[in-house]
UniProtKB/TrEMBL annotation:
This is Catechol 2,3-dioxygenase. It comes from the Bacteria. The keyword Ribonucleoprotein does not apply. Residues 11-128, 170-285 form the VOC domain. Its EC number is 1.13.11.2. It is an enzyme of class 1 (oxidoreductase). It holds the Pfam family Glyoxalase. Gene3D superfamilies: 2,3-Dihydroxybiphenyl 1,2-Dioxygenase, domain 1. Keywords: Oxidoreductase. One of its GO terms (molecular function) is catechol 2,3-dioxygenase activity.
Length: 285
């Protein structure tokens, strides 16, 4: 499973979101999701599963505003559990603590639960089916949304207690609202080097490196031409793409310049911005 989230692939490492109340959000992500705190200051917390790797950071800006409606930005970030047994123990944890979810789906390539944090930031918790079972038609992988077989997953995890996110947990992918698909696809393919691996009608695209089912999802479900969110509103601040080598990093920087993408350098690192305003931090893994 982890091969899709390591070299020689480019993948999502950490997601950084803004929230309205850091203490409320921290309680949610620790107690509901099962993260551990890696670092914490008054208005920021960095969260981990294994005690070493940052997967999610939550920040409360001084002048934070509520999450905007029907803007570009975060649709959800997706937490990838090591196996089906872990997903079952997470479901049992939700049942025992009467936590609510927004949905559950079998995507053929994966099995997933959907929920939101206290500010409405979307979250997916999922596990992959074996990649040998994925059905590829040429360059595209078959994905759909069917009812999740909860009882089957629970039976596989019977007797496994939920003790928070297991150490093998990864940030599996990120799914973004964008203003339109053509220019966005150009940025993510010709600029960042991802391949389109699934098209969902004319409203969504899924892209990956190394024939994963997707590291990046893009959709126009908030409307074609959706505006960018306000500065410091609740939602996505940026996410990190981990690039496998210095050589590939330099190639991607050159490709981004070729598609006239904005490239920024500051004390936090090197960033680019997609055509819909989603900020991406680029680093070498």
């Amino acid at each position: 499973m982890t091969g899709f989230h390591e070299a020689p692939n480019t993948f999502v490492g950490e997601v950084v979101i803004t929230v309205a109340d850091i203490d409320r959000s921290l309680a949610f992500y620790q107690e509901f999701i099962g993260f551990k705190v890696l670092k914490k200051s008054e208005k920021k917390a960095t969260l981990t599963a294994d005690g070493m790797t940052a997967l999610l950071s939550i920040e409360q800006p001084e002048d934070v505003s509520p999450k905007g409606r029907r803007t570009t930005g975060l649709y959800h970030f997706a937490i990838l559990l090591p196996d089906r047994r872990n997903l079952g123990s997470f479901i049992q944890h939700l049942i025992q603590n009467k936590h609510s979810i927004q949905g559950a789906s079998d995507h053929l390539v994966s099995e997933a639960l959907y929920m939101a944090d206290p500010d409405g930031n979307g979250i997916e918790v999922y596990t992959d089916r074996p990649s040998s079972s994925w059905n590829w038609q040429g360059q595209e992988v078959e994905m759909t949304s069917e009812a999740l077989d909860i009882q089957s997953i629970l039976s596989e995890s019977e007797g496994t207690e939920w003790n928070g996110l297991p150490s093998g947990t990864r940030m599996g992918h990120i799914h973004l609202h964008v203003a339109e698909l053509a220019e966005s696809a150009n940025f993510y393919t010709k600029g960042l080097g991802f391949d389109i691996v699934n098209r969902y009608g004319g409203q969504a695209l899924f892209l990956s490196s190394g024939k994963y089912h997707h590291h990046i999802g893009l959709n126009t479900w908030n409307g074609v031409g959706a505006p960018k969110p306000e500065n410091n509103s609740v939602g996505l601040k940026h996410f990190t793409l981990v690039i496998p080598s210095e050589e590939m990093f330099e190639k991607i920087i050159s490709q981004l310049k070729d598609v006239s993408a904005e490239i920024l350098k500051n004390d936090e690192g090197i960033f680019t911005i997609d055509p819909s305003g989603n900020r991406i931090k680029l680093l070498v893994g």
